[in-house]
Design brief:
Chains A, B: GO terms for molecular function: ATP binding; proline-tRNA ligase activity. Two copies of one chain form a homodimer. Chain A is α+β, with helices and mostly antiparallel strands. Chain A contains 13 helices and 23 strands. Chain A has two domains: 320 residues, BirA Bifunctional Protein, domain 2 (2-Layer Sandwich), CATH 3.30.930.10; 92 residues, 3-Layer(aba) Sandwich (Rossmann fold), CATH 3.40.50. In chain A, the strands form six sheets. In chain A, strands 3, 7, 8, 9, 10, 11, 12, 13 and 16 form a nine-stranded mixed beta sheet that branches. In chain A, strands 20-19-21-22-23 form a five-stranded mixed beta sheet, with helices on both faces.
Amino acid sequence: MRRSRAFIPTTKEVPNDATLPSHQFLVRGGFINQQGAGLYNFLPLGKIVLEKIRTIVKEELDMAGCNEVQLSFVTPIGLWDRSGRADAMGKEMLRIQDRHQNDFVLSPTNEEAMVELVKNRVTSYKDLPLNLYQINTKFRDEARPRYGLLRGREFLMKDGYSFHASTEDMIREFDLMEETYKKIFTRLGLDFRVVQADSGAIGGEGSKEFHVLADSGEDTIIVCESCDYGANIETIFDNEEEVDALNEKTYEELQTKEISEKCSCGGNLSFKKGIEVGHIFQLGTKYSSALEANFSDENGKPRPFEMATFGIGVSRLVASVIEQNHDENGCIWTKETAPYTINIMVSNIKDETQMTLGEELYLKLLGENVEAMFDDRKERFGFKMKDAELIGFPYTVIIGKELDNGLVQVYDRKTQEKISVKTGDIYKHIMELI
Amino acid sequence: MRRSRAFIPTTKEVPNDATLPSHQFLVRGGFINQQGAGLYNFLPLGKIVLEKIRTIVKEELDMAGCNEVQLSFVTPIGLWDRSGRADAMGKEMLRIQDRHQNDFVLSPTNEEAMVELVKNRVTSYKDLPLNLYQINTKFRDEARPRYGLLRGREFLMKDGYSFHASTEDMIREFDLMEETYKKIFTRLGLDFRVVQADSGAIGGEGSKEFHVLADSGEDTIIVCESCDYGANIETIFDNEEEVDALNEKTYEELQTKEISEKCSCGGNLSFKKGIEVGHIFQLGTKYSSALEANFSDENGKPRPFEMATFGIGVSRLVASVIEQNHDENGCIWTKETAPYTINIMVSNIKDETQMTLGEELYLKLLGENVEAMFDDRKERFGFKMKDAELIGFPYTVIIGKELDNGLVQVYDRKTQEKISVKTGDIYKHIMELI
């Protein structure tokens, strides 16, 4: 992409309500902008990142044997009456009325619709297991939408639902999804932990959360330093006030607090702050029983499906990458999430030699399908450099004064190191980096 | 995909309200199911087709220099008050209230939001032109939702908006988009016509529609048999009653009607029935003036953007392909839209030789990234054949009794021809077909 032709409205202005780095830098870097309370638009750079994350989620789920579907976003209230959640979901579930005064909701989750879809269409144990998922818009009417993409009202979520003939098979799928989720978050380049969790309004027995570690995380988790044990503090402290008080504390404050429990492996436990980006639940027959969704077992007897459900906050992940990867100058995208891997910056676009090299390199990279941005704007070097740091391209190739000595610089956004490379070696150097 | 593990709930039952072939066959073939009036779920096969169409639309637009964004689906009513369309859009625009009694709408289109996005972010003629698009959910509260995906309430639409410093440049982009749309519909394998059209509620001066020719089309168009002239009859007949009367007529009835106009090229004009799948508008400054969205021209003078807008009915295209391509047995997908190109059908799965060849061929095709379905179900041959016709795979490889003579059959869904191929040649034969 030529920067002079791109729509990337970067700005110095910090939105009034933006307290978190991801909120500030995603708006300032021209990735998103606010349409209304808890409502965000994705601009070209933000849309690219969102689609990269969506693609990784889809690839790993498809490889694990899941089937993608897409349910309607507006769903009839009747679905929710039948499961008993019309009331239980409270005000977060936004009710709407169409022109004929029929009642609908903006889907906050889709257990009911998915059970209705499978009911009477999957009738035998022979057709099980089945794991259906969608990556689709959700709406939850948060009382206080805040933190940019982290607690918006409209968001993109991957929600998956599996159907089984036995509890054992459901648990097998639950474990498979845990492994699949780990692959997804690993590919995204995130430092994360899997922890024991409460099931909340979704219901069911066992549940696990996936937390991206970040000082700004809303949740407090306890993790073992020696094994892979981890738990949301909600599952450890019975007292709600104690949980709230811990969640109010900053990461630094938590480090001074002793933990009386001992991990069963004998390792030290410590507090971490986390952003919940995934949640998997063993549902059992809660929804299939309520909605009378049965299959015939080996003896021809009708039985309700054993179910599990699996969620990933896809648009929330865009912000989570930045909460974990940023500095005071802006975003630091991981390789798999960066909107463009290489930024080619011509220091002085009036210098024909600089521009010629820039153009050559840009076209060569495009030819190799390398995602390259070509900053060909007539702006000062310092301005363009700040802009590149704010956006957070992993690597910037600086074509400037050193070109007289046959050299260009390669700037690494993460390490902030700048190294000189001979112009003849730059293409090879880039291909090795990426 | 192994058919025994896929969720493709085909059925003989025709929905009560399904009068059109696409509605009947998409439901019967397990592509979609109805969630509520004008609300549809896409099941795995339907989702694959939808994504194939979305991908082609995106590829062609990106190649034409457009930038993809994603605006929030729920938008504040204030946007629509400012443009004056809060009233003009009527009851099709569904109004909703959040928990704080603030008013929002489910986006039926996004001119206002897009102008607000560009306003104050693109400030100079140097940053123009700009063409932003999204492929996103829309909602229109139709009084009588019907015809399955053709006139639903919630649907997937590509809506693009371009911004220019002059009328000339806007018209250049309008022409470029006409060419781009032609490329898209051609790649999809559709027989379509571009026609002069009314601008309706969107407003503006010039507009063109893209119609997929199909006897069941809701619109009546006039096309020249000798040149590329075409027009929606709305632009030709002043009398609304006459237009309605013509639209009521079937394709056959229209063929007996004489057309008094003569094409300027001297060619014969004839009536056709069409499904509107695209619409492009020259907007001028209607929205930019109303929303005070200006740029500085060469003399530093503020001027409202010249705009154009471009729509494609993405989910409607799924149905349009079938309205144009079907027979009494079911769907006939075009190569670019088929959910799977090759269907491998083992006639008797208890016959080890048949199954071995089926498995071998299936895995070999998967290895070459050929989209293959492997019908390994324990069902009668006739049942599986009917199922394949209903779904509409372009080619079915039948591994049956003829295997004893070293032959398999390849069935072409469109021509209904079945030819015998030596088992040793089948892989090569398939690769030549696709």
